[in-house]
Amino acid sequence: MSSIKVSIDRIQVGNYVKLPVGWCDHPFMFNNFKIDSQHQIDLIRKLGIGHVNVYPQRSDCALLPVKSENTALVEADEQEINALKIALWNEKQQQIEKLKNYRRGLNKTEKRFDTAIVEVRSVMNKIADRPLNAVAEAAELIDSIAESLLSQENLVLHLMNESKESENIYYHSLNVSMLVMLLGRLKKLPVEEIKILGLGALFHDIGKIKVPAQILRKKEALTKVERNFLKQHTKYGIDLVNLIDVFPEAAKPIISQHHEYLDGSGYPNGLKSNEIHPFAQLVAVANEYDNLCHPTHQAKARVPSNALSWLYKNTNDKLNRNDLNLLVKILGIYPPSTVVRLSNDQIGMVISVNTDRLLFPSILIYDADIPRNEAPIIDLEDESLTVTSVLKPEKLPQHIYDYLNPRSRINYYFEENEHHKNL
């Protein structure tokens, strides 16, 4: 969107402006904003700048004419201006402190997520040789996550750090397990059923340890023989857990049926509708979503919001629609990692959603004047902003892409906090 450079004596209330000074050199929260009071104009004049950039398309009114008598208006009382300046600086400092606290909380969540991944890796590496230990460790991990999930009054789901491509199975397993436990919570299932869901989801792809790595990581289209081999992972998985006496019977349908579809087009047995266990139907929704975001060939990956809309349009007869609706209630219209353009024309990336306030996610804002490690993280409701469009990360200019750092692997974890408003 184009702007025009004008002298400050031509701006008025309703003009959308961008200040030609660094973020630390003025008391406003952003460099660009819509002027909503004469006091703001007076304060801009106090900054010692001769001009600003004005965006006509974002403004509510035109510029004042050159040498208009209106420009000779007496400025507001000096004390009022100073009071406003102090108030704005204080508000800005409070917001900066909020961001610091937010990032500290996010770091704690990251550490808990990293610990969970280490435990998942340990479980997967033990399942073949020490299955009893593996199941016991997995059950302990799931019990801990489930108890914590259920203790939260409201949930904030965060975008987590990047992952290694070679360890996708660990991240995928934890992602699906996390999402289905959240779905179980939303369905108000008993805690023991949520734990069964989580454990089954954690092991849903365990049969892939018997599938050759060259098939699992192949980026080109699989041959018919390779596809059939891959489809055997449900059989390999159930054969494996059947050898483990302590593996819960109630979790086994998740492993054997998570690729069955309601219309009978799934595998391995072409089950239909109620023939598919409800737990397997739930896991199928989370599994399909995560696979769309993270296909073997990353170039074919869908952004989260597109993955959700694709599932809605293309799986009406395959996936449980009620379960899919619940997934949207957890992730929101703009799930974490979605890159968006806002109503003030700024670009940002969703980094967390509060399940009680899905229309108002927390967004990391691109601002070339602010170092990335201090980048603003805003709450849409607080700033009275809306999302106008979703952007594909690969279409971003390189400098914006580098700043926002969209994740190639989208991982989620929840914040432990009883009463949390995103920011």
Characterize the structure shown:
By secondary structure, this protein is α+β, with helices and mostly antiparallel strands. The chain folds into 2 domains: 4-76, no CATH class; 94-414, Hypothetical protein af1432 (Orthogonal Bundle). It is built from 14 helices and 11 strands. The chain has helices spanning 38-46, 78-126, 131-151, 168-186, 191-202, 213-216, 224-231, 233-242, 252-257, 278-293, 304-314, 321-331, 380-383, 398-404; strands at residues 4-7, 16-18, 32-34, 51-54, 156-159, 339-342, 347-354, 362-365, 377-379, 387-391, 412-414. The strands form 2 sheets. Strands 5, 6, 7, 8, 9, 10 and 11 form a 7-stranded antiparallel β-sheet that branches. Helix 2 (78-126) crosses helix 4 (168-186) and helix 3 (131-151) crosses helix 5 (191-202). The two termini are 28 Å apart. 36% of the residues are buried. Mean pLDDT is 87; it is low at 69-74 and 418-422.
Q: How does the major sheet shape up?
A: 7 strands, antiparallel
**Element-by-element helix/strand order:** EEEHEHHEHHHHHHHHHEEEEHEHE
**What is the SS-derived class?**
alpha+beta
- The rounded Rg comes to 26 Å
Under the CATH scheme, the architecture of the largest domain is Orthogonal Bundle
Q: How many β-strand stretches?
A: 11
* Domain module tally: 2
DSSP helical segment count: 14
CATH topology of the largest domain: Hypothetical protein af1432
**C-alpha termini separation:** 28 Å
Let me know the average pLDDT. 87
**Name of the CATH class of the largest domain:** Mainly Alpha
Q: Considering DSSP H and I runs of 4 or more, what fraction of the residues is helical?
A: 40-55%
* Strand percentage: 5-15%
Tell me the CATH superfamily of the largest domain. Hypothetical protein af1432
The best one-word shape is: elongated
Low-confidence stretches: 69-74, 418-422
